[in-house]
Design brief:
Elements (H helix, E strand, L loop, with lengths): L1 H9 L8 H31 L4 H22 L3 H23 L5 H41 L12 H72 L9 H18 L3 E8 L2 H8 L1 H18 L5 E6 L2 E7 L3 H16 L3 E3 L2 E3 L3 E8 L6 H17 L5 E3 L8
Helix pairs in contact: 2-3, 2-4, 2-6, 3-4, 4-5, 5-6, 8-9, 9-10
Pfam family, one: GGDEF
InterPro entries: Diguanylate_Cyclase (IPR050469), GGDEF_dom (IPR000160), Nucleotide_cyclase (IPR029787), Rev_trsase/Diguanyl_cyclase (IPR043128)
Enzyme class: transferase
């Protein structure tokens, strides 16, 4: 119980949420306890020696009382007051004891060196500078006072008092060195821990960034796939009607700028309903796939091949005249007629009918031109199918 009480009394105060204030309090608490122990040890040595002036003992008692007051301020949260009071009183105390002994040539004067160290611990670099100057001025003042005879007669007797003083001084030095060393080790350990945590954080961040990049890449890839799926027919792989609005508007603008033609070719599989009814829808799908493959094969890089709906297809030829588009459509027609599509051991013949219209001959808007290409396609159907028809205004009066 007693040991616990002593430990509690010696422990520095802790201020929640104020790390710097707690650190300062711990440092000042250490200085107070060390100073108190040092002063008490010197007093014991002085009493054992029996030659120390009574005034010096009184100064030591005052120092103990003032140091206890500093600790009281410290525990009540007045850390700044305790810090400045400790530094100022320490200088006054050491100077007073030295003056009372009558000479600076005593162990007491050497304590100024450790007062400078203590001031540096409490106030960092600023404390070292100010402490060094203040201690230097104190020594200079004592030298002037001693040489002028203003101090009492020097007390040069040596004995137990000096031995205790030196021993306490050595202990104070060792304790201060140990404290600084432990503080340095703790700081280095904390720094190493922080470095390790930063490395781990950087590695985690790097891994997270890599994962994010992968996710972004995956999202972009999926967006591309979804876009491609949205604008392509899933069965034939050709563009679908959703793709046409933007694409054809863009092609019309480019044709206007280049002052060139833009030809639309509508194609329809002849008797496709008969294929579905006779051979089944799987056979019909195979026919659609084979025709789409044929259209892709005859499409140039700048051309657009689209499944317009059902068994109907649209080909768009930029920079192609009506005559050339007619010739290309006939080539596709002939190649389609040569197709041999096998389904369950049966050969399915496929024929295509075409209707051709162009910008600017048949309109300024792509919707108008498609309507006229579709009318030309209808004319091919009416004229016996398996042929190519160019839209003629005189043949299709409005």
């Amino acid at each position: 119980m007693l040991v616990t009480s002593i430990k509690r009394w010696l422990a520095p105060p802790v201020f929640e949420g104020a790390e710097e204030k707690t650190r300062q309090a711990s440092l000042i608490n250490m200085v107070c306890i060390t100073s108190l122990a040092f002063t008490l040890a010197v007093m014991v040595g002085a009493l054992m020696g029996g030659k120390t002036p009574v005034s010096t003992l009184i100064i030591d008692l005052v120092a103990c009382a003032v140091t206890l007051q500093f600790r009281h301020w410290l525990r009540s949260g007045r850390v700044v007051l305790a810090r400045f009071g400790m530094v100022i009183f320490g200088l006054v105390f050491i100077t007073a004891v030295t003056a009372d002994i009558g000479t600076i040539r005593t162990p007491t004067a050497a304590i100024l060196l450790f007062w400078v160290l203590m001031t540096g611990l409490i106030f960092d670099r600023r404390g070292i500078v100010i402490g060094t100057i203040a201690a230097s001025m104190a020594v200079l003042g004592l030298i002037v006072a001693e040489n002028a005879g203003w101090l009492r007669p020097p007390f040069y007797d040596v004995g137990v008092t000096q031995w205790v003083t030196f021993t306490a001084l050595f202990g104070f030095t060792s304790g201060l060195t140990y404290y600084i060393n432990q503080g340095t080790k703790s700081a280095l350990a904390l720094a190493r821990k922080e470095i390790e945590q930063r490395k781990q954080a950087e590695q985690s961040l790097k891994a997270a960034n890599e994962e994010l990049h992968l996710r972004v890449f995956e999202v972009q890839r999926l967006q591309v796939e979804l876009h491609e799926q949205a604008i392509h027919d899933p069965l034939t792989g050709l563009y679908n009607r959703r793709y046409l609005s933007d694409a054809l508007a863009r092609e019309i603008i480019q044709a206007k700028r280049a002052n060139s033609s833009l030809t639309f070719v509508m194609a329809d599989i002849d008797h496709f309903k008969f294929v579905n009814d006779s051979y089944g829808h799987l056979a019909g799908d195979e026919v659609l796939v084979q025709v789409a493959s044929l259209l892709k094969k005859h499409a140039r890089g700048s051309d657009i091949a689209c499944r317009y709906g059902g068994e109907e297809f649209l080909l768009v030829f930029p920079g192609t005249s009506l005559e050339l588009a007619h010739k290309r459509a006939e080539e596709i027609q002939q190649n389609c007629a040569a197709l041999s599509i096998q389904h369950e051991g049966k050969n399915i013949a496929v024929m295509l009918s075409f209707g051709v219209a162009a910008y600017p001959d048949h309109g300024q808007q792509w919707e108008q031109i498609i309507v006229k290409a579709d009318k030309a396609l209808y004319q091919s159907k009416c004229n016996g199918r398996n042929q190519v028809t160019i839209f003629r205004d005189e043949e299709f009066p409005t």
